[in-house]
Amino acid sequence: MSLGTMARAAAAGGLLAAFAVSGLAATLENVRADDRLRCGINPGLAGFSYTDDKGRWTGFEAAYCRALAAAVLGDPDKVTFVNLTGKTRFPALASGEVHVLSRNTTWTFSRDVDLGFTFVGINYYDGQGFIGRTALGVKSAKELDGASVCIQTGTTTELNLADFFRVNGIAYEPVPIETNAEARAAYEAERCDVYTTDASGLAATKATFPDPGKHMVYPEIISKEPLGPLVRQGDDQWADIARWTLNALISAEELGVTQANVAKMAEGTDNPEINRMLGKEGSMGKMLGLDARWAVRAIAAEGNYAEIFDRYLGAGSPLGLPRGLSALYKDGGILYAPPFR
Description:
This protein is α/β, with parallel strands linked by helices. Helix content is 38%, strand content 16%. β2 (50-51) and β3 form a beta hairpin.
């Protein structure tokens, strides 16, 4: 292990993480030995990760974890979900407490390079915004001079917030909190005038209010927040498995492969790319260290990208979020996966 690698790992999670780097190449073997995938998620964010009435973790980001578990272990329920805050998520990943982080995390230069993580793709194109009570009489974030702002610590939103107020020449009073649940409680208790986080998170929070009409999400989007799953650097095989599981869900939408028809399509189609992805032709599974039907199981777990999005975030959910930039490129968005070739 190089000194540079050890230094990056230490920055992410202390000396424990630095020594853990030497064992990263065994991630797939460790997952198989434990017969469990340990997936870091948000402690609770409507639409993204939450428990249903049976206490089962579900949501847009939890669905990715289940797809990955299905691809690797053959069972989407072989997941141990680990609740992580903005502060604890990176040390947990760096130390090996979790195998993958699927927790509304923004892909940035420093996280990719300095902290030593590998983002496996973008599963949601987001941006930071603000929500405030309509009683404030404010209709734009640029009118928030002197406002108190609830903000999660350990996130990109802190720096984005400082940049926005500095650029616009206005002042603010930060009210630091650690989780979305705490932010909601602080905001509802009027400990702050407004709350800022990713726009998707604002929609999720607003949807839980008993009187959502008394709150307004301001029109300004002040940052680029490309969200996606990430793993530790140092294990290219595991990164490839995590990356191409996400790509399989995205490609399945484009190619018309769904949870309902994936088993039938795996028997063979006239489309060679579908055949390669689903293991009817070629040896892509073997290249990953998996069997031929890994992608079949990933898609069968909860469906393709569109099915997962619609169920938890889109038209079929209480949030009703539009696809926006997260729509496929052919539908006006910028989402697509590299080819299975």
